[in-house]
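WARN no homologs supplied; continuing
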Amino acid sequence: MDRGKKIFFQGWALVYLKRYQEACKEIERRKKLHAETNAPAFPNQFRDDDEALFKLYLKLDNSSKVNGYKEILKSAYKFDEAGLKKLEHEADQDIILNRQRF
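OK structure emitted
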């Protein structure tokens, strides 16, 4: 498996293992690597990651990070309070990744 795919799947694996602190670090590292390499990006490319990080920080009870990602979701992706409540409900059910919704 190439390095890019390994980095991508590593964050998912940590979520499934419920190693949430490590998952946060890995997902944030992936976003940082993308920025450092100046790789092309498309609109809303990190929406799923930002939603997952919001939920993970809810699970970890990190209010400062939750508030930070709440602002990102509102400003970058136009989430309203109902959308945020839906994500909170999913976090309560351990639905962290978009792919876990199905």
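The helical segments are 3-16, 20-36, 47-59, 63-77, 81-92.
OK
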